[in-house]
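Researcher: Sequence of SUEL-type lectin domain-containing protein follows. Predict its structure.
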Amino acid sequence: MVLCSSSGSWCLLPFYLCLAVCPTWVVPEFSAYLHTILKNHTMHACDGENLLITCPSKTTVTVLSTFYGRRIPSENLCPAANRNDTEENTNCMSSVANQKVMDECQDRPSCQIPVFSRVFGLDPCPGTSKYLIISYKCRPEIHSSKLVCENDTLKLVCKNDTVLAIYTATFGHLLHGNAECPQKSGDAPDMECLSPTALRKVSRRCQGRANCSVLANAQNFGDPCLPGVKKHLRVSFVCAPRYLLEDVGRGSSDPFLITDYTHGGWYTGRGAFQPPRKMVLFTNSLEIFAQIWGLPEKVGLYFVSGICAGLVFLLCLFGLKSTLARDVKDLIYELGESLKDTQDPGAELMEDFNNDTSSDSSVHRLARSYCLAEIFSPELMVEMEEHWEEKELPNGNIFLPRDSSPYAAHKIEETTA
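Model: Prediction complete. Tokens:
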């Protein structure tokens, strides 16, 4: 294995020199070779078959991800040889498939995997035919490799308009350790423990970028080891021309989503489960945020959540403000009405008195007319009404005195005459 400097800017120098001095008939073959070593490859095989992986000369296999189980219905992918009456399980996968494939293929020029359920440990879904999918790269012998100890920052830099192409990333502890990050004797048992998400997270952060920084700690990669074990982060990469890496990556599937219901976009046929469109857009937005700012998708999620929370807070604040303004306006109006009522109480009393007086006067007239109509004839009533209109009886009484008689009316008439 040939290692390059940490900057990685001279990794592909022999390739560039070859492009300049080799005959023109060699260039197409070399271009295809570059595409092969930079591209993500995906292969699959059904139960009962053998999956063969082969890389070009002077390259070795680097496993990116593995899936063994079933997501796609059998009528669309890998139909079962013997159909049975049991219901097919399209939501099963082996949890040890990736480790098994890495043991057989990692850092080898080629490998062959027999696809049988017993090869991958406990059968995840008995009675259901399964298939194996492997996503891998062919890593050239000429590449860069950089290592930092736990809690240190790994910095990768490419120059001359080249960008990073990540091949491997491991975080944890290898058997017998390493000289750069030695383990103190007696602190913890010497055993291999590696984070299963290291390659995915480093690739998300650095793939296709001119430079990047990654903090090697358990917060970013989890802690796969026992307490006290000294861990490290190792990354192997090359610096490739930007246009070339963009060309090989156009239209390729996502190897780190190989366990989903479309296997990272590798399967585009019928029967594939399509997630809700809004969720896809939201996930892509977080990925774009991570690529632009060089921050984890979790930070992007916190950022978006903070913006949404702020908008909800402003909405509640504006609603509370309008409610308070309306309540204050109503209160001011009620206070104004109360002040107006208490400003001139005498006028209100006089108005009530006048209303009562007019009402009493009307009642008096009605009662007087009713009582007299019961005693006197209509002609005498007319004369008495005319007299009372000219002069009211003493004390405002409408009835004659108690000692008077009906004939007293004649006396009244004689007096008026």
